[in-house]
Known about the structure:
Elements: E1 2-3, E2 11-12, E3 23-27, E4 30-36, E5 43-51, E6 54-58, H1 67-77, E7 84-88, H2 94-97, H3 100-107, E8 111-114, H4 115-125, H5 134-143, H6 147-156, E9 172-174, E10 179-182, E11 185-192, E12 199-204, E13 209-213, E14 220-221, H7 235-249, E15 255-258, E16 264-265, H8 267-288, H9 296-303, H10 310-329, E17 333-337, E18 343-347, H11 352-358
Amino acid sequence: MQADPSTAAIRYLFDDVPAPGTLREIAPGVLWLRMPLPMALDHINLYLLEDDDGWWIIDTGIALGPTQELWEQIFTQCLGDKPVKAVLSTHYHPDHIGMAGWLCERWQVPFYMTQAEYLSGLAFSRMQQEHFSWSSARFLQTAGFSPHQVEQARKRFSGFGDYIKPMPMAYRRLVDGTSLSINGHRWRVVVGRGHCPEHACLYCESLNILISGDQVIPKITSNISVMGGEPEANPLKDWLASHERFLEILPPDALVLPAHNAPFHGLHARLRRLIEHHEEHLLALEEACVAASPTALELLPVLFKRTLDEHTLGMALGECIAHLNYLHQRGQLARDINTAGHYTYQSTDETLPLRLRRNRSEPDDQPILQV
């Protein structure tokens, strides 16, 4: 994910955040807690919704560090005489589903998720190094990797089975537009796409609260990546369309409960800023392809000014290719392949230099982190 300095329209609900494993009330029956993450982005926000006969857990934390201990502490000290009755994950990334299998097994309760996220979680959690195929190598080669870099990537390749408990072997499907009735309130499923295939947000009209997961975060922008499993994907198109839709169907004054940072007001301003952020990146990439025909790897400095390590390089490359696929599929960039098997890109817009001089903006220059 990428930090975004433009947050002037954001108003936070609190001046501080709860300590890991402690609960804070957002509204009657809506509780916020944080769990630690072993990375630069050092936390994830989880939420508990109280029902008349038990608790719903929304997202679960990663299966590393003290997460399980902290959950046990919450069960002992914070739930009163009510059990957990359901577990829901907004999407398949490990900090959101890491403890889902353990929680569902411990309490013998159903697991809620959209179909695309559940199946993606099953697939990624079972990947091994042997699943690095010729198509994986071809994807990196066309992005600009040398044979040595491809081989190094092969050695590092794995899924995220080490970061999650075995997933539940059954689930209840969340579908866009349907609702869950919890403690007399209806929580409507609102699906967003781009960061992942079918991300489930939950909106409660009576409370005017949106549980947004990674789809809308106040200080950082979610990683929008193309991966080797679907090299011609266009997740940025899905991401932008989702945000335009959210502007239409969700109220501007909703209280947003995100998966990272802190609960905030300013939903529409944040959605517009996220759209602008990617439009700025698209324009910068077009400019870089006017006089030269670079590869995706060569274009990384256009979007990311700092040195990228092994962990962040793959995510940065995936994000860059997402932008390039968007521009190529719109006809704004031509794509060719050179003698090394690398895709190269060339702007097709002869008026672009003039437009850039009239309306120049710089892309954000902050580190990315996967969540």
